[in-house]
From TrEMBL:
GO terms for molecular function: acyltransferase activity, transferring groups other than amino-acyl groups. It comes from Streptomyces lincolnensis. Pfam families: Acetyltransf_1. Keywords: Acyltransferase, Transferase. The keyword Signal does not apply. PANTHER family: AMINOALKYLPHOSPHONATE N-ACETYLTRANSFERASE-RELATED, AMINOALKYLPHOSPHONATE N-ACETYLTRANSFERASE-RELATED-RELATED. This is Acetyltransferase. The keyword Coiled coil does not apply. The lineage of its organism: Bacteria, Bacillati, Actinomycetota, Actinomycetes, Kitasatosporales.
């Protein structure tokens, strides 16, 4: 039986970099295909991937987790501690071919545990309307939709969950 494992991973490892590229490519292409009928411009994709390194997902104030399915890197979730003591859930992603096997929920639960370890009592996140699968996952895991907590350009839905 093939199983999932989840473990911390340095944000700048080759595995993390490959998963970040896959994540960013998917969410960017989904946005541009929906709103502009095109895929992400390759130069824009490279600029954005390079600009958002993930360095904030480093202990002691952050953590990047990698999920492996049958030993192969298949997904990520990250948390970063905010100045107000909350933590933000970010980079939740599972490769398309690995979805529907419980990995996303496992990664989010592991990220909740990591956030508690960092000292957070609340986990927040933002997402987009077109990422309906993500919104359904968060609702299923007990996240409540809230008023906006940031002004991110692509954020359309905001969620929170008490970790207490």
């Amino acid at each position: 039986m093939t199983t999932w494992t989840v473990a911390p991973e340095p944000y700048d490892s080759p595995v993390a970099a490959a998963l970040w590229r896959a994540y960013y490519t998917e969410v960017s292409d989904r946005y541009y295909l929906l709103h502009e009928g095109r895929r992400t411009d390759p130069a824009e994709l490279e600029r954005e991937i390079a600009a958002v390194t993930g360095a904030e997902l480093t202990p002691p104030t952050g953590q990047l987790l990698v999920g492996r399915y049958g030993g192969e890197p298949a997904g990520t979730a990250g948390v970063r501690l905010l100045p107000d003591g909350r933590a933000e859930l970010t980079r939740v992603f599972v490769h398309a071919g690995m979805r529907g096997r419980g990995g996303a929920a496992l990664l989010v639960r592991a990220a909740e545990t990591a956030a508690r370890t960092l000292g957070a009592t609340t986990l927040i996140l933002d997402t987009r309307t077109d990422l309906a699968e993500a919104r359904a996952l968060y609702e299923r895991l007990g996240y409540e939709e809230t008023a906006p907590h940031n002004e991110q350009v692509y954020a359309e839905h905001w969620f929170r969950k008490s970790l207490g």
